[in-house]
Design goal:
With about 425 residues, this protein is an all-alpha fold. The chain is built from 16 helices and no strands. Helix 3 (about 55-85) packs antiparallel against helix 4 and helix 3 runs parallel beside helix 8.
Length: about 425
């Protein structure tokens, strides 16, 4: 992923990187707005074992197709109304090219989670890896060999989504014998998944806004070059989330499958404090190496991304911890907790960005984001502690017994 970002940034330059970040934000934003929480409800109901896997697969396939159709129509309307505000320096043809990815994104996200729900994490992670490798390979093809510039970077993104869908159908057929001709659309599953999914869907929308609203505000108050600098700062600093993202994938499915509240809480406590510990180490390493990484990978033209990057670090580390607790709330069937917290932090984030970006530029955006992420962590820590009658240090600070786990994992790795 970092190599792909490096190729795109060095090929397109600061201004082109900003345009690319805004373009790719478009299909991801509309997917987040209209997926109705289908991926999370899929994981939850596979864990509950109420419906056959064939019916879940068929229902997800048809639902994702219908949702993508209406989403594409809405996204064209958005471009027609707001291109002159956010995309005035970007050709319409490139924006339309990015929207071709929408049906594939809907299908990919709705089918990949079947592996997560079945706790087949090797296949799930293989898809994630292939996604990054696909972008990297297509970037080399379109940017280096064909020299397509901005449209080449967008074409690489779209081509990867098509590739991943083909791989998903292959793996689903091989592992679970799932094909379009098996199973049937389940009205009961659709209604229940809609009810569960919508509880957390608003949370997902607000979380996405929290993660990316600063790019739109920077584009509005500043320029595409500023978006390019900030997007690189975000790209590098969010590498810290590699651990929390991977663990969250497992945690959500595992919590959904565990039978007692005590097991769920204890398991989450162990995971949360170790993710916090590892993320803190990663944050410290990036603090000392971040400037060097940005200069080496992206070039001297992106040097102004260093200060926002450093200011983003504390918030990103703290949110790594909060993301674990978010998956606990979803796993126990209480995704609405995430929604309430996300509503408060989104309002806070937008307000701080609107106030600070015109005054401080990219520094203001980074400060606003870090404050928002820290607030998210503090609120969820309080809720989790009270819900499970745990002292916050029990799930915040790593214990000596946890290091025995690391020793065991290292020994197993060497044995294998």
């Amino acid at each position: 992923g970092m190599l792909s970002a490096m190729i795109i940034a060095r090929t397109l330059g600061v201004d082109g990187q900003g345009k690319y970040a805004l373009i790719i934000l478009l299909p991801n934003m509309f997917y987040t707005l209209f997926n109705i929480g289908l991926p999370s409800s899929t994981v939850y109901y596979i864990g509950q074992r109420e419906y056959s896997l064939e019916n879940i697969f068929k229902t997800n396939l048809l639902t994702a197709t219908i949702l993508s159709f209406f989403t594409v129509i809405f996204s064209f309307l958005f471009i027609y109304l707001y291109q002159d505000i956010f995309y005035k320096q970007i050709e319409l043809s490139i924006l339309i090219l990015s929207l071709i990815s929408l049906p594939f994104i809907f299908l990919n996200k709705s089918l990949q989670v079947i592996f997560q729900g079945k706790e087949e994490f090797e296949k799930y992670n293989l898809i994630v890896i292939l996604n990054q490798l696909g972008v990297f390979a297509f970037c080399i093809l379109f940017l280096f060999f064909l020299e397509w510039n901005l449209e080449g970077a967008v074409a690489a993104f779209v081509s990867t989504q098509i590739l991943i869908l083909s791989v998903l159908f292959y793996f689903l057929k091989r592992e679970f014998k799932l094909t379009f001709f098996k199973g049937s659309f389940s009205n009961s599953y659709f209604k229940n998944s809609l009810s569960y999914g919508l509880k957390g869907h608003v949370s997902n929308i607000l979380a996405f806004i929290n993660y990316r609203v600063d790019l739109f505000i920077i584009a509005y108050f500043l320029n595409d070059a500023s978006v390019g600098l900030y997007s690189i700062a975000v790209t590098v600093v969010e590498r810290i989330w590699v651990v929390s993202q991977s663990v969250s994938t497992v945690l959500f499915a595992r919590v959904s499958n565990l039978s007692t509240d005590v097991e769920r809480a204890n398991f989450t406590a162990v995971v949360a404090r170790n993710v916090m510990f590892i993320s803190l180490i990663g944050g410290l390493l990036l603090y000392f190496l971040g400037s060097w990484i940005i200069k080496l990978l992206f070039g001297a033209s992106f040097i102004d991304a260093v200060v926002p990057f450093i200011l983003l670090l504390p918030g990103v580390v703290l949110l790594s911890f909060a993301r674990i607790l978010s998956n606990f709330f979803s796993g126990i069937g209480r995704p609405e907790i995430n929604t309430y917290v996300a509503f408060f932090t989104t309002v806070l984030n937008i307000g701080l960005n609107i106030y600070l970006v015109p005054k401080l530029g990219l520094v203001g955006a980074a400060i606003a984001t870090s404050i928002t992420y820290a607030s998210n962590m503090l609120i969820k820590t309080t809720i989790f502690g009270r819900m499970n009658k745990m002292f916050f240090l029990d799930f915040l600070l790593v214990r000596s017994t946890d290091f025995a786990l690391y020793k065991n994992y290292i020994n197993k790795a060497f044995q294998n």
